[in-house]
Design a protein that fits this description.
Layout lengths: L3 E5 L5 H13 L12 H14 L3 E6 L2 E10 L8 E8 L8 H16 L3 E7 L3 H9 L3 E12 L2 E11 L1
Parallel strand pairs: 4-5
Antiparallel strand pairs: 1-2, 2-3, 3-4, 5-7, 6-7
Helix pairs in contact: 1-2
Bound molecules: coenzyme A.
Length: about 160
C-alpha cells in the first residue's frame, strides 16, 4: 500500500469524501447512513467544520480520500462540551492501523478544540470498530436495543464515550 497521509479536511476534498462516505454507507452495515447525503449538503458540512474548527481529518492515498474521522459538538448549549465522533475507511484500507492513526489524531484535535467528552454509537456487531474504540480509551456506556433496522433486521447500537 502506498503511504497514506492524514490531514485536516479542505474544501477540495469534498468530492473524495462524499465518494468514500457513499461507498461505506452503501455497505449498509456500519453507518447511520445508507447512502451519502447530497453533495451540496456534504460541502456545507465540510465548510461548517472548517469555519468552526470542528475536527475533521481525512486519510489520503495518492491524494485521494480513503477515510475520514470527524468530531462535531452536540447541538444544545448544555452539551456544547461533547463531541460526537464518526469515522470510516474504504474496505481496502482497513485492518492496517490506519483507523488507529486517524482516531488518535482526531482525539488530539478534539482535546485542542476544547471538548471535554467525545461519544459515539456503533453497531453492536461491528467488532473491529468496538475493538478500536476500546483500544484508544472509549468505555461502553450503554446499549440501545433494536435501535437500527436495516433490510427488516433489527440491531443494537452501543453507546461509547471517553472523557478527555
Ligand atoms: C472501524 C474502522 C475505522 C477501524 O479501522 P482499521 O484501520 O480497520 O483498524 P486498525 O487497523 O487501526 O486497528 C485498530 C484496532 O482495531 C481492532 N481491529 C482492527 N481490525 C480488526 C479485525 N479485523 N478484527 C478484530 N479487531 C480488529 C484491533 O484492536 C486493532 O488493534 P491491533 O492493531 O492491536 O490489532 C474500519 O475498519 C472501518 O472503516 N470500518 C467500516 C466503517 C465503520 O465501521 N466505521 C465506524 C462506524 S461506528
Amino acid at each position: 500500500m502506498s503511504t497514506v497521509e492524514i490531514v485536516p479536511i479542505r474544501e477540495e476534498h469534498a468530492g473524495g469524501f462524499h465518494r468514500t462516505l457513499d461507498i461505506v454507507a452503501r455497505e449498509r452495515r456500519h453507518l447511520s447512513f445508507l447512502e451519502a447525503p447530497p453533495i451540496d449538503a456534504t460541502r456545507a458540512f465540510i465548510r461548517d467544520n472548517i469555519e468552526n474548527g470542528f475536527p475533521q481529518l481525512v486519510a489520503l492515498a495518492d491524494d485521494e480520500v480513503v477515510g475520514w474521522c470527524d468530531v462535531r459538538p452536540k447541538a444544545r448549549p448544555i452539551h456544547a462540551h461533547v463531541g460526537v465522533l464518526g469515522m470510516g475507511l474504504l474496505p481496502a484500507f482497513r485492518g492496517q492501523g490506519l483507523g488507529l492513526r486517524l482516531i488518535e489524531r482526531a482525539l488530539a484535535a478534539s482535546k485542542r478544540f476544547g471538548f471535554h467528552r467525545v461519544e459515539l454509537t456503533v453497531r453492536a456487531e461491528n467488532a473491529n470498530a468496538v475493538a478500536l474504540y476500546r483500544k484508544v480509551g472509549f468505555e461502553l456506556e450503554g446499549r440501545l436495543r433494536d435501535d437500527v433496522c436495516v433490510d427488516g433486521v433489527y440491531g443494537d447500537l452501543l453507546v461509547m464515550g471517553i472523557l478527555l
